[in-house]
Specification:
Structural class: alpha/beta
CATH topology of the largest domain: FAD/NAD(P)-binding domain
Low-confidence stretches: 1-10
GO molecular function, one term: metal ion binding
Number of helices: 8
CATH superfamily of the largest domain: FAD/NAD(P)-binding domain
Family: Belongs to the HdrA family.
Keywords: 4Fe-4S, FAD, Flavoprotein, Iron, Iron-sulfur, Metal-binding, Oxidoreductase
CATH class of the largest domain: Alpha Beta
Domain 4Fe-4S ferredoxin-type: 103-133
Largest sheet: 5 strands, parallel
Oligomer: single chain
Organism: Desulfococcus multivorans DSM 2059
């Protein structure tokens, strides 16, 4: 592709990551005339927001914001979306990059109508990553009902099996291609925005909090999926060991955060996430008791402070200022006892509850897998932007912990920086 670097409205931008920050960056650039490539490793766009039950500031479901963005993408010829795609290599300089992108096979082409016949024909079940493995789905599946692109996916686990042949035979539209192979394409772009997002910190690494040992200890993202109407329990928050409606839940704040052995920083969103999830439980179970163990509550801004005060006024929600030291399980009831020292009274507390929710922190994806480009990172894996050099930028939670509103604002600014690279080089 030949790019005129001087003319405004020319050139192209690559956005790596199709979560809320990536979508915002792409749309802001495309809607002022720039060609944009979105590169997303999952078979769908939407990122972590798609996995939420509700999100601030309006506590609306993901459909509320993502649906509009998906429509804008479909209507904009400047945007080209590549899913099941990962950047392998970036070479060149600001204004003139060549990016090698690996495309993994979906085994389903654009003829797909989402009729679902392939899923009905498939007998094999695979873990459902969208629900953090809390349930299983067919080997031919739609990631979730709002998935964009709206197209089924066939798991590589069934390729080469008799089940795969049944899936292909069930498709009336010739949409199943079992012989699809991975391929690499090269794209010429003027700037690259890394919107690679975040991952929940691995709770298995926090030895004293029992995750993985006791089934009734879940993470904040897991309870988000339990509360979601399209989650593994269709919106019912049930404890995993016996599908019982919990009468009491403890939220453990800073699970692995603000801890030099894990994540030394505050993830910004965890306190508000737990307060929000407490309202999920109270709406479902009016008599349930909620215990929130915290170091300090961080509710930045007037709107969040107001929400915090609303939750604090609930007579069935109890705030305990104290870091949880350990947890244990009663093998007969599978109830969990949380042990902490109340920092205000000095009292050692043993609180027994039906379920525990660990407010695990937000870790940038690049902390675990370094990106294949010349980027700078801080000690925690967040991208440090070099605005003087330009060309490549981190945005959203690839750059620092953000809530959805702040991530959108940051992504809008990053889109401008990417455009400036094209205009100035």
């Amino acid at each position: 592709m030949t790019v005129d670097k001087q003319a405004p409205g020319s050139g192209s931008i690559m956005v790596v990551g199709g979560g809320i920050s990536g979508l915002t960056t792409a749309l802001e650039a495309a809607e002022v005339g720039y060609e944009v490539f979105i590169i997303e490793k999952n078979p769908y766009l939407g990122g972590r927001v798609a996995q939420l039950n509700q999100y601030f500031p309006k506590l609306c479901p993901p459909t509320c914001g993502l649906e509009i963005n998906f429509r804008r993408i479909k209507d904009n010829p400047n945007i080209k979306v590549f899913t099941l795609a990962e950047v392998e290599k970036v070479s060149g300089n600001p204004g003139n990059y060549t990016v090698d992108v690996k495309l993994s096979p979906r085994y389903v082409n654009s003829n797909c109508t989402c009729c679902g016949e392939c899923g009905k024909a498939c007998e094999t079940e695979v873990p459902n990553d969208f629900n953090f493995g809390m349930d299983r789905i067919k080997g031919a599946y739609l990631p979730h009902e709002m998935a964009f692109p709206a197209r089924y996916v066939i798991s590589p686990r069934i390729i080469g099996t008799e089940d795969a042949k049944k899936v292909k035979a069930a498709c009336k539209y010739d949409a199943v291609e079992l012989d699809m192979e991975a391929k690499t394409i090269s794209l010429s772009v003027g700037s690259v925005v890394w919107a690679t997002g975040w991952e929940p910190y691995d709770a298995n690494r926090i030895d004293n909090l029992g995750f993985g040992r006791y089934p009734n200890i879940v993470t904040n993202m897991m309870i988000e999926r339990l509360a979601a109407p399209n989650g593994p329990t269709k919106g019912k928050i049930l404890r995993p060991s016996d599908d019982k409606a919990p009468e009491s839940i403890a939220f453990v704040q800073c699970a692995g955060s603000r801890d030099e052995n894990h994540l030394p920083y505050c993830s910004y969103i965890c306190c508000m996430a737990s307060l929000k999830q407490a309202t999920y439980v109270r709406a479902l179970y009016p008599d349930a008791k909620i215990y929130i163990f915290y170091i300090d509550i961080r509710s930045p801004g007037q709107r969040y402070e107001k929400f915090y005060n609303m939750v604090k006024a609930d007579e069935n929600v109890f705030f305990i200022k104290g870091k949880v030291a350990e947890v244990s399980e009663d093998p007969d009831t599978r109830n969990i006892t949380v042990v902490a020292e109340n920092a205000v009274t000095g009292e050692k507390i043993h609180q027994t509850v039906d379920m525990v929710v660990l407010a695990t922190g937000m870790q940038p994806t690049a902390a675990n897998i370094k990106l294949p480009a010349d980027l700078k990172y801080n000690a925690d894996g967040f991208i440090i932007n070099d605005f003087e050099k330009g060309g490549m930028f981190g945005t959203g939670c690839a750059a620092k912990p953000f809530d959805v509103t702040s991530a959108n604002q940051h992504a809008t600014g990053t889109a401008l920086k990417a455009i400036q690279t094209l205009v100035n080089k």
